[in-house]
Structures are given as structure tokens and as C-alpha cells.
């Protein structure tokens, strides 16, 4: 096992806006193992979304490369799923058809009847797992925010991607729903051994979900700290009350404050 | 809103409740009871009709300016018996829908292209902007010159009158399909064609149907202009000719009929919209 599940080497992305060049991401190097959950935190504009776009294959780096299992990323692929801050479900499709959207596309490309049937069943299972089975025929606009976000996660997991990319997916949810979703996400991803890159503004969420928390700083966007979260893999509501948890949270916050105070004077 | 003096016997809270209920009828973007909505609609039509009846039967206005409702009805019967009415209705509908459908066939593809590919918007958008302000009736002499005096120039005029606006509106509608949805589809592995078919087209459809509904109205407003071109039948033609003979009752009849057709088509379009796109209805979630 030489190759990492997700690897970034010297990854740089600059945006030319007028005469100025914004270095959204500078020489980022990152190695993420299989089934690892890595959380990205950092002030606005530090390149978190930029990194996710690159990993999703929606954008191309100015310099450097990204690999999945040693293979360079060129455009989007079924090996990666993405969940957005807004649920981004297709309003004209029922929940179930939304979740099967990716499968439908796969079906038109190849004709693996048997494995397709398995994936379809897997979709239905996931819907059931997240409590959306009774709502499978509803349109997204008929669901609550939390339900929509669950559907978004199921849609991203439907094709069994190796890597799940999440950009502040729970930012718009209330505290209770948010906690439920965090626990659900950990469960689902552990079952499928999914590698997760999770962007959040909430340090507590980052420590709760992550095996590692990367702290980033803006202008230019860089990773300034890589904090290992040495907590037991199985996490529940009580985890957040533990002393270890609070200590790690404090460590991440320290890094963040440092980033903030450095970033402030330069404007 | 002053409290109505009709509930002097009710308790204070009763009056407050009525007041609150009345205030809710004027709340911004909130649903109101169906019965209220319907009675407001019918009430407006009835009071306008009542005003018309009062002014005409009461001879507030000279009959040559304002015919009576019965006068208009009688005229309708006469024209029907002379086999003019149905013929006029038919030929005008054919003209309007021919021109309109031609515009639809041109505007939807052009609008979709302009809305989604920069190279087409570079070609189409400025050109439509250029055409948009041109007065449609000014094309009549050219149309007669090029297309003669049969049906074609009339249909072309309605086509010209609607196609520009329709293209611009379809372009706007398709541009409104959220970039986020397109990104989501890309991440799920959709290629350009699939994004176009499964996301942009699907997401634009309700807006396109709305655009068609609005533009059918525009098409009808060009009818009278179109029938300036050497027509000898049709609703627009009949209206123009009746002016010469001071037949205000015919003018009233035909204008009202066009309005009635408008209500019917509008209703059908809305019905279709609700039936075809249940997901895009306001207040779906209740
Ligand atoms: N398409 C673009 N064109 C120009 N500049 C961009 C573009 N996308 C991002 N940027 C710039 O790159 C930098 C990083 O943006 P990015 O969206 O990755 O930040 P972020 O960490 O996700 O911030 P937030 O927490 O607010 O979502 C910002 O300065 C932003 O202005
Ligand atoms: Mg972002």
C-alpha cells in the first residue's frame, strides 16, 4: 500500500482577478489514508472550497497535482462524491430519483446489470437508514432542511465513492439536527470505509468528526497546522464532554486564533 | 382599516378576532381563503359590468359611444347568424397561433443556446437587443412587399412581434437554473449533454411554459396590427372596419371576446403548469 487514498503534492491555485492575483491555495501537500476523516477549518477565504473543487475535479490546479489511489485526478468521477452547503437536490426529481441520479448516469455508460441492481438496492437501503424511506416519492421542497441534507448525503454516497467531499454541509442546520447528522455521517462512512474531507467553520464539529483537523490561513491559502485527533473511533454525544476532546478543541482554537491575529493587521 | 360596525353584540375578543382575520387578508405573500379570492375576482368583473350597464342603460353616455350589454349580445347573435362571428374567431386564432408557434420553434432553441453558451449569447443577445426596440407595425410595408397579401405576412407580423421578446425571456429563464445544481450534476458524473438535458432543460421548463403563456398574450395584441394588412375577415379586421361604420357594439363584442380568449388560454396554461410541474408550485409544502 504505497499510494494514499487522496494525495496532494505542491497543490497551488491562483485566481487572476483584474490586475491582482489571488493565491487561493499555495503549495499544499497532503496525504490522506483510506477511511480517514480530515476536517478543514480556517477563516473565510483560506482556500477550503478551492481545495474541494480541485479534489472534485470541478477546477484545475495552477500547479501541482492531486491523486486518488495514485491516479491523477482529471475531472469529476464516480470515485468521489460531494455534499454542498446548500443541499443542491434537483427540485424536479423525487428524493429517490435524486439519490439515483448518479446511478442513472453510470447505467448509460456501462451495462453491469447485476452490480447496478446491487447499487439500486444500496440506494434504497441508505434511504431507509437515514429515515427518508417514507419520503422517497416526495419532492425536495416538501422536506425539511435536515431531511434535504440527508438526501444530499445519500445521493453522494449512492455510487459508493472512495472519497466524500463535504463543504460546510451542516452549516444551515439547527444544533440538534446537526448533532444527529454528524453521528449519522460517521456511521455511514465507517460502514463503507469512505475517506472524508469535511470543511466546517465549527471547531467542535471538526474535532468530533475528524481523525485529523487541518487549520488553514488565507492570503495565501496554506495549511498551518495538522492536529491529530486521538480519540476513540466510535464517537457519540458523550465524546464532546470528555476532557481529551476539549483539550484537542483548545489546541485547534489556539491555532485558529493565531491565524486570525496574524491575518488581521495585513488586512 | 376602520372596524365595521356590524358586530356590536359580539365580545371584545370576537371583534379582535374579526379584525385579525381581516388584517390577514392583506398580509404580504400569504395565502387567503379560496372563497375570498374567488369572490374578489368575480366581484371585480361584476362591478365593472354593473358600471357598464348603468352607464349604457341609464344613457349617461350616448349609445354610439357606449353600447348596452344587450345591444352587444344582439350583435353577437346577428353576426353568428350571418356566419361571420365563428369565421372571424377561427381565422384570427389560426393567424395568432401560427405566428406564435413559429416564434416558439425559433425562440426556444435560440434562447437555450444564448442562455448557456457564451459564443451564442455573443451572437444572439446584442442582435435581439438591436431588434427589440424596432416598431413592429413598421415592418408591414416590407412584409407586403416580400410576402404578398395572403396569410403569410399576417402570420409573419405576429411572429416578428413575439419572437424577439420570447428569445430574450427564454434566455433569462435558462440562465436562472442555479450554477450549484450544474456543479452537483458534474460531480455526479454528468457530461455536457447530460447536464443540458437533465438539469438545464428540466430546470428551465416551468419558466419556459410561463414565458409562452405571457407571450401568447403579446401575440394577440399584434392581431389588430397584423390584420391591417389587406384582410377581409378576422377579429382585428372586424374591429377596424366597425370603426368606419360606427358599430361600437361590434367593437365591444370583439374586444370582449379577445379578453375572454385571453382568460381561457391563461387558465389552460396555468392548469398545464400545475399538472406538468408539481414540484415548482408555490406553497407545495403545507
Ligand atoms: N472563481 C474565483 N475567482 C476569483 N477568485 C476566487 C474564485 N474562487 C475563489 N476565489 C478566491 O480564492 C480565495 C479562497 O476562496 P475559497 O472559496 O476557497 O475560500 P473558503 O476557505 O472556502 O472561504 P469560506 O469559508 O468563506 O467558504 C478567496 O480569496 C476567493 O476570493
Ligand atoms: Mg467556502
Give structural notes:
The complex is a heterodimer of chains A (267) and B (286). In chain A, helix 7 packs across helix 8. In chain A, the strands form two sheets. Chain A has a six-stranded mixed beta sheet with strand order 6-7-8-3-9-10, with helices on both faces. Chain A has a four-stranded antiparallel beta sheet with strand order 2-1-4-5, with helices on one face. By secondary structure, chain A is α/β, with parallel strands linked by helices. The model of chain A has no long low-confidence stretch (mean pLDDT 88). Chain A contains eight helices and ten strands. Chain B is mainly alpha-helical and 286 residues long. Chain B has a single domain, classed as MetI-like (MetI-like fold), CATH 1.10.3720.10. The longest helix of chain B has 32 residues, at 85-116. The chains are: A alpha/beta (267), B mainly alpha (286). The A-B interface holds A 56-58, 76-78, 80-82, 84, 86, 88-93, 101-102, 105-106, 108, 139-142, 155-156, 159 and B 178, 180-181, 183-190, 194, 198-199, 202-203, 205, 277-280, 284-285. Bound molecules: adenosine-5'-triphosphate and magnesium ion. Magnesium ion (MG) binds next to helix 1 of chain A.
